[in-house]
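QA checklist item 7 of 12: single-chain prediction sanity check.
[x] sequence parsed
[x] length recorded as 132
[x] structure emitted
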Amino acid sequence: MLSDAQWFELEPLVEACRPKAKTPPQDLRRTLSAILWRHQNGAKWRAIPEDLGPWWRAAQIFIRWSRAGVWERLLGLVQEQGVQLGMVFLDGTNVRAHQKAAGATKRGDLGPSETLVKRLAAHVAAMAPRLA
């Protein structure tokens, strides 16, 4: 869990970055502690300890904020404040890539379909003078 000193420094930065919703998130400090715990330990969302709140709330906040770019803005603010980061070592031999990391199409990705339709339209436009 975030200590009082950590939360004292982090809270104004989080408030400056987070999206303002109709209802503010419940117990944001505990939820952020769960998100940080999960990423520090490399655990699955469901492995988050119960004392850090429901795992699904942490996952939901993380995904929403990821899509909204909150984490990038928060990191930028933290770096501007001069917060010193510790050294991190990641052994790449133990990191497994998901099948989608190899360039597999995303579910609901319309990019390839849009490209195909554009090519089809170009072919149809080129055929029109020959048919006339």
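[x] summary fact logged: Residues 2 and 8 are 10 Å apart (CA to CA).
[ ] second reviewer sign-off
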